[in-house]
Amino acid sequence: MKIRQAQLPKDWEIKTLAEVASFSQGIQVGLEKHLKEPQEGYVRFIRIVDYTQNTEDIRYIPNPGDKYFVNEEDIVMVRYGTPGLIGRGKAGVIANNLFRIKIERKDLTNDYLSLFLSQDHIQRYLSTQGSATMPALNFGQLRTVEVIIPPLPEQQRIVSLLDRAFAAIDQAKANYERCLSLSKVLFESYLQGVFEKKGDDWEELKLKEIGLTQTGNTPKTSEKENYGDYISFIKPADVDFSGVGDLRYDNNGLSEIGFRKARSMKNGSTLMVCIGATIGKVGFAEQDVTSNQQINSLTVSDGYFPKFFYYAMTSRVFQEKVLSAGKGAQATLPIINKSKWESLTIAFPKLKSKQESYSKRFDVLRTETQKLETIYQKKIDDLEELKKSILQKAFQGELEIGVAVESET
Length: 409
Hints:
The chain has eleven helices and 20 strands. The radius of gyration is 29 Å and the shape is elongated. The chain has two domains: 5-150, Adenine-n6-DNA-methyltransferase TaqI, Chain A, domain 2; 202-350, Adenine-n6-DNA-methyltransferase TaqI, Chain A, domain 2, CATH 3.90.220.20. The protein is of the alpha+beta class. It has a four-stranded antiparallel sheet. A four-stranded mixed sheet has the order 4-3-8-5. Strands 12-19-16-17 form a four-stranded antiparallel sheet, covered by helices on one side.
């Protein structure tokens, strides 16, 4: 993290953070003292979530005195979890997992220093402190961070230029994020429209009337010979793992011995998670697989087009049936057993050729919307990289008046 003076304009200084600022830690207050509504003698209590999440869960605690107060202009830094993260814009008492950084010289501003500490290389350095399981930051590590300090007018110029550049970047990001959201909705809307406006040439049957329904099972894990790479063994985390109905085949598998104790789901089967927080998640098998008991599967008979029924199970119409049946089982853990699941009805065109036609249309539209999503996500990622690049140039004396960001989408 050493900075070379020779790389900077002559009137710029390099100081450690300890030479230009002091640090103070917040206060620990038990949950029993938290209030969710303001009350006389209580003050706003600022926690990590107030900076990391758009939370409406504001807390108030008994006033502990001025020692722990920060105002909206102060620089606050996260100590645990995401150490180094900068927080500003809130007034109140900070929790003990936050630091206040107070500048001790008149020719350095909070606006400038907070932007300087937000640089990617500094954030990476601070975020790697502590253990792998609980990243943490202490005053000693923070004190050694080197700060580049230009004259006050240059600090103000840099802040002004960065504000303008970041506002343009944020506007561009917002535009691309709207486009990304719309591209995802496009496919879902078309799919929903098909299953809501089914015609007279459609019929509705129970899953068990359409093909073979099965629940997976797990060979004994204590018998190591059951496991190997003979056939994929699908668990809930392997279903729809990248959001396009795919299955993860290269996870833990079964050996040939284990396969003989399992249930095989043939290529073309649709698998659905039927328990827990991801109940209703659907994947389409493009090779023979096995699964554990948290997954049910449908392998359609020869008179039906397999991929159509995968799409039918992802539709809101069918998902609502699954969720309704699952909630009826237990309040705390949604679950739908095989007998209930295979009795759910699903609508489809009577002709296999029409099922195939719809399925191919769904495939094409999904592919096109995925392309759009990839384009928009890359633009969003590129804008984040642009932000990092602009920050770095600003604190090397390389930021020009003409910095601009194209915000058209």
